[in-house]
Sequence to fold (190 residues):
Amino acid sequence: AAILGLSAPLTLNQVHGTKILPATPENDGLQGDGWIIDRPGVCAAVYAADCVPLYLWSDDAKAAGVFHAGWRGTAAGMAKAAVAAFARLGVSAAKLSAAAGPHIGACCFKVGSELEKDFAPYAFLRRDEGLHLDLAAVTRRQLLEAGLRSGSIVTDAPCTVCGCADYFSFRRDKQDARMLALLSLERWPS
Fold:
């Protein structure tokens, strides 16, 4: 963060849920999977490897959030919980945009049939080698159902497994290494 001119990021003890906290120093290190920032001068982050790092921001750039959504958080409705957190700040879904960062794509996320109880049928692709979960499709659907405009959502992102060796992937590498998804309301120098 320092190389970008940002303060040290607030981080969470991530628990694969839907708990979202205001990005304040007193919440640094608490359990949760998402941050909401409503003022400049704060940098917040979530860790991700194959999980979806999800960013949401208000059209007026006065509020933004960064969220960690693995399959458990996605099944529990993290994207909808994120939109609800903005609503509590008075920001309607119609005034939000969203983008997903690099995460495991359906191309590489082979799962067992036990997950079929946690997701609607559209969440899966069936291929010769089995069942694949599409976290991007589920995230996009949740954002649309929560009221975001289709044109304000970007969930196409590189796959952490096959998209580039520079991305950390537990599924590919079997090592516990993660990327940091940073967020701040600071403006870049022009």
Observations:
- The first helix runs from residue 71 to 75.
- The first strand starts at residue 20 and ends at 22.
- Residues 36 and 137 are 23 Å apart (CA to CA).
